[in-house]
Amino acid sequence: MDIFLLLKSAFAGFALCVGALLLCFLVFGWLLKVSNRHFTRVFLLGAILSFLLADLFLYFKIVVSRVDNPELFLVGTVGGWLGGIFFGLTQLKPMLKTLLKTS
Predict the structure, then answer these.
(1) Which of 4, 20, 59, 100 lies 20 to 30 Å from 66 when distance is taken between CA atoms?
(2) Is pTM beyond 0.70 here?
């Protein structure tokens, strides 16, 4: 088992998730002026957007680039994505609310 491939893919999934969440809250808070009371809706939209980005990333890496252990890469990326969702709900929530509050 290649532990470095698992760690690398988990970090990639985590970074994709948190980046998509931050970008979604930035766009909806600053550009579209969504208020703070719609936090759950914006977070759900950010989670769906991050899932689509992770799925596109997995397709590119597994199908196009032919990564060595595709099952291990899939498990790591999905685990990192889930970790990013939980991190966004627990630790990143005050910062995300601040991005919506600035509107």
Answers:
(1) 20
(2) yes
